[in-house]
Amino acid sequence: MELICPAGNLPSLKAAVDSGADAVYIGFQDDTNARHFAGLNFNHKRAGEGVAYAHQRGTKVFVAINTFPQVSGFERWQQAVDKAAGLGVDALILADIGLLDYASERWPDLRLHLSVQASATNPASLRFYHENFAIQRAVLPRVLSVKQVEQVTRESPVEIEVFGFGSLCVMVEGRCLLSSYATGKSPNTFGACSPASAVRWKETPRGLESRLNGVLIDRYGDGENAGYPTLCKGRFQVQDKIGYAIEEPTSLNTLSLLPELMRIGVSALKIEGRQRSPTYVKQVTRVLRAAIDAAQRDPESFTPDVAWMDALQKVSEGTQSTLGAYARPWQ
Amino acid sequence: MSMKSEPRLALGPILYYWPKAQIDDFYRRVADTAVDIVYLGETVCSKRRIMRTRDWIRIGEQLQAQGKTVILSTLTLLEAASELSALKRLCVESPFLIEANDIAAVQILKELGKPFVTGPSVNIYNSRTLKKLSNNGLLRWTLPVELSVTELAEFQQHRPGNVETEVFAWGRLPLSYSARCFTARAENLQKDDCQFRCLDHPDGLLLSTQEDEAFLCINGIQLQSARTVNLLGEIDRFIELGVDVIRISPQSRNTIDIIECFAQVLNEPQSPKRFDTELEGWAPTRVCNGYWYGDAGMERLI
Predict the structure, then answer these.
(1) Are B77 and A69 an interchain contact pair (Cβ–Cβ within 8 Å)?
(2) Residue B144 falls within a domain, yes or no?
(3) How far is CA A29 from each of CA A141, A279, B263, rounded to the nearest angstrom?
(4) Interstrand relation of A60-65 and A241-243 (parallel, antiparallel or unpaired)
């Protein structure tokens, strides 16, 4: 099982490569990728340096061009595909049908992976992308239980990659418009969820308030840790009860599932977090590398090391972790 | 220049979970309205089984006999292998055209050699995607609800000649889908033991901010906007841009009245403003139209 690590800049890429990633994934500095944050991502020169650094050390580089180009901007997404192909990267991670069509026609020898943003959760959808665009791998949305991942993997015409660690999307990726409903910008159209430009913090007599384009996402009392106001992780009111009506701020952590994911035939494990620091990338990559190696050596007696769990807990969102949809009770 | 014809009215699938008698009664009344197209079926949750496929087909046959064009809609988020099998059966057995709400349905229908239409949750954000799906058997598509009139205008210039365009013009907007059931969560129940609480919320369950601003609407595994999109005021633009079908999404009350408003504005030139107050009153929590103007979906502009 390959370990796929995030890199939002060159130091992170180097940290991932040096810590044992089998592949790193990156994006360009615009809305062609789903981590379109200020100060993040690679220009052409940096991407070239990153590819050289990784390739010299036997690590692959994937480029995510996984937002949905709109009618008027399509050329820019085409150029991103051409640019990545010209850099000699090992695979493109794409979501949009039109862009997959372009890439498979223009660069027939370039390996294509289906992004989680394509929202493909079942073998029939995977057949569509395989038959039409010869994709070789698909990243599954974080909505399936382990049993469902197994069923999909068994019938899939392509390799399967799943998320192993990082921030948790509660919604099926690629079909969540909550962010644009509140701010006008969504992962699909803009490459960011709950964009920083729409966030406002304010100390009030009732506590520290976080707002997204004016909508109150959360309010923190004394001693409460304030988190980034991702829309689905705020506290709201339903039937007179206030709480995390959608999801708690928490990270996905699948360490305990590694032998199971290997047995199922999952080809690659992805770490989320291109927006995170090089330190995060280094720590998480190291732990996942050690854990995957241990699980591969002896899947029967594999148990997550306490030190690994501690290290991951420290970098978790909200310092909590969950098995997410992989475990039925979470659903 | 192509001939501009009047758009037709469509009634989207019921997104909520209603008792069978209510559904039967609803469609009996729909038969006498001005809608041309009626979408039937469960698109949100596979656990909602009050209506079996044969029940939908029975209602569809009645509506068809009364002059309506009937389309069966498919599940949006497929997770279990059993859901995929059910989808296959529906695609094989349906005597009606099918609305694909996931790429799985697109693929299955292509394999069966059957044409199809797509609902708002199939991601068509550019003309190359539209053309590719058209080559796979697409007859009509629905504009993703987050796209604006500017995007629509671009699409209309470049769309394949044989493909029709539909716009979601009235209803709480479908915004997201999850493995988790938010209705069960709100009721402190496990999803596997949800006790079908969706039945208690015929227009969904309101989610408000801590300062009582109505924000979202919980509908099982789906989240919707609390505000109802209202594009009645845009009918002239629809006609100008050659929109073929205008979709109204059902709600538990006043759906028939809402259809009537749209039909009146379509049939005789008059100011849609005339209906503003009534429509505002019929929306469960206010109206919005921000997406249409390229703004945040929740905004109300003009």
Answers:
(1) no
(2) yes
(3) 24, 21, 47
(4) unpaired
Give the nearest chain A residue to B128 (CA atoms): A98
Q: Where are the alpha helices (DSSP H) in chain A?
A: 10-18, 44-56, 74-86, 97-106, 123-133, 146-155, 178-183, 187-190, 258-264, 278-297, 306-314
Looking up residue B12, the CATH number of its domain turns out to be 3.20.20.70
CA distance linking residue B204 with residue B220, whole number of Å = 8
Q: Is residue A228 part of a domain?
A: yes
What is the value of pTM for the model shown?
Answer: 0.97
Q: What is the pLDDT of residues B175-213, one digit of tens each?
A: 999 999 999 999 999 999 999 999 999 999 999 999 999
Distance from CA of B288 to the nearest CA of A (A): 10
Model confidence pLDDT, tens digit, residues A163-192: 999 998 999 999 999 999 999 999 999 999
Interface test with B, best of A96, A144, A152, A175 (most B CBs within 10 A): A175
Is B146 in CB contact (< 8 Å) with chain A?
yes
| H/E element, A7 | none
Q: Report the distance separating Cα B114 and Cα B90, nearest Å.
A: 12
CB contact residues (below 8 A), chain B span 151-210, against chain A = 151, 154-155, 158, 173, 175-182, 185-186, 190-192, 205-210
**Do A163 and A188 lie in a common domain?**
no
**Does B302 fall in a domain?**
no
